[in-house]
Structures are given as C-alpha cells and as structure tokens.
C-alpha cells in the first residue's frame, strides 16, 4: 500500500508537467463542477519553471495564509530553488487571462522538517514566502484556519477545489472545479479495508464513495470546511489511490492543518524576520 501511495505522488507530478495556454496545465476535481468565479479566493495555482526559460506550468494548488505566505504540500516542492516557482492568486480560468490574477514569484521555501518523501509518513506540508505581497484586488482573500488540534466529525461535508484531472484518461476543463467531500473519521479511515496504517491522526480523510475525489494536479490545494461561522482550510491535498482516483473506500487524504498550526506560525514569523534583516 505504501508503494501505491508513493507511486501516485510521482505519477501525479509527472502528469502535471505538460504546459498549455499561458504556460500552465490544468484538470479538475473528479465528480466536481465549475466553481463560481470569485468564490474560493484563497485558492492558489503553484506553477513551476523547470528549464529556467520563464515558461511556467501548473503543478499543484495552495492556499493564501497571509499576504506573504502560501501553504501547499511538501511533495509539490520539486526543487528547493525558489526562483523556479511562482504562484498565481485570483486565478479562475487557466486558459485565459481574466484580469483578476496576480503572478508572484517565490522568495523562500520551507518544508516541514518531518517530511521524508514518504506520503504515508505524513508531514506533507510546506510554506512558501512570496517575493511580493498579495494585494487586495477584490479577487483574493487570506484563508481562515482551524483551531489548533481541531478535528471534524465523521460525515461532515467539506469542499475540495482545484485544477486536478477529471478522470484517469486526463480529460480537463478550463476553470477551477469544486466538489463536496464527506469527512471519514480516523477510526474508520485507518481500518484495513480503507487506508489502514497509512492514515495517520495528522491527516484528514474525505470522500471514498467511489464517485468524487481529488486527483493529480489537486495536490497542495485546500479542503475548505464551514466551521465556527467561517470557511476554514482544514486540509492540504496529500494523496489518493494509484490508478483511478475515485475508488470506493479510498478517500482523498489531506494533511490536517490543525496539527501543524504552531509550526506554521513559527515559520511565518521566522521568514518575516529574515526578510526584515535583508
């Protein structure tokens, strides 16, 4: 099972490296539908320039956590050279320039120290420091986050958003997709006929109905849940089953943001202080 999970990470990132229109590659959440423009304002497209020719393409999602920082998955970091990346905020249609986008280069990358490249070991989270701040143009917003240690009850409905593949054949739409996913509590997701031992307490499982799921290209993006009077990013897309993404009893698995709040705050503060020194 661990081998299958690892295979998915590699397969997904390789598949993402195929550029199109304004230098990005996109897809969608499986079983989802077009989101309404200007709805998921904290959603980010993380883009990579692998040949240093200023030709960027979408590889992962992410979430704006403050004006200078974006949260994504550690496995989305293909290189620790920040000059190879940019983020696009205010994005909706990856095929077109909508006028709502901000294209911002990455200045620094911090991957969780517990990340070892094995998705089943967890800690699949990273923070990107931006070279310039996100400004409020009416199409962006800072994500609300959960309380430290907060968990969601079994069956609680959240929303996954992203530009991941629509199916295993690689069919793609043009705009940001969204879909509802029901949380599968850890005591269920860790059962042998679900994800078993590769589902950790520091993860959130959601889906598993065999119809709706995240897929390659959604990695790093948010699981947004309406809790305590606001939409909050409770998860970062981490992994799913190898092969067909929407498999029964194999829900999409997210890094549980509430398990990493102290680390995130310390990293943001450290990067801010480093930027002041420079």
UniProtKB/TrEMBL annotation:
Question: What one GO molecular function would you report for this record?
Answer: serine-type endopeptidase activity
Has keyword Transmembrane? no
* Residue ranges occupied by any Peptidase S1 domain in the UniProt entry: 29-269
* Cited SUPFAM superfamilies: Trypsin-like serine proteases (SSF50494)
Endpoints of the signal sequence = 1-16
GO cellular component, alphabetical, reads: extracellular space
**A biological process (GO) annotation for this entry?**
proteolysis
Supply the alphabetized keyword list: Disulfide bond, Hydrolase, Protease, Serine protease, Signal
| Any Pfam family matching the protein | Trypsin
According to the lineage, what is the superkingdom? Eukaryota
Name of this chain's protein? Peptidase S1 domain-containing protein
């Amino acid at each position: 099972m661990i081998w299958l999970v690892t295979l998915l990470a590699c397969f997904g990132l390789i598949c993402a490296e195929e550029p199109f229109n304004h230098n990005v590659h996109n897809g969608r959440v499986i079983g989802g539908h077009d989101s309404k423009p200007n709805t998921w304002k904290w959603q980010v497209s993380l883009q990579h320039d692998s040949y240093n020719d200023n030709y960027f393409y979408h590889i992962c999602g992410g979430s704006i956590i403050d004006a200078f920082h974006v949260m994504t998955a550690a496995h989305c970091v293909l290189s620790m050279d920040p000059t190879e990346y940019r983020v696009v905020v205010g994005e909706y249609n990856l095929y077109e320039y909508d006028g709502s986008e901000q294209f911002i280069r990455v200045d620094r990358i911090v991957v969780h120290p517990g990340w070892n490249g094995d998705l089943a070991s967890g800690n699949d989270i990273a923070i990107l420091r931006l070279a310039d701040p996100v400004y409020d143009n009416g199409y962006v917003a800072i994500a609300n986050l959960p309380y430290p240690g907060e968990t969601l009850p079994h069956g609680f409905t959240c929303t996954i958003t992203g530009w991941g593949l629509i199916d295993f054949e690689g069919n793609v739409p043009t705009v940001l997709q969204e879909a509802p996913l029901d949380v599968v509590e850890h005591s269920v997701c860790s059962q042998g006929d679900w994800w078993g031992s590769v589902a950790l307490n520091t993860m959130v499982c959601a889906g598993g109905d065999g119809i709706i799921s995240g897929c390659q290209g959604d990695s790093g993006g948010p699981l947004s849940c309406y809790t305590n009077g606001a939409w909050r990013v409770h998860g970062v897309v981490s992994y799913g089953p190898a092969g067909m993404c929407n498999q029964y009893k194999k829900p999409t698995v997210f890094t549980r943001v509430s398990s990493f709040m102290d680390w995130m705050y310390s990293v943001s503060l450290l990067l801010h202080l480093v930027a002041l020194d420079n």
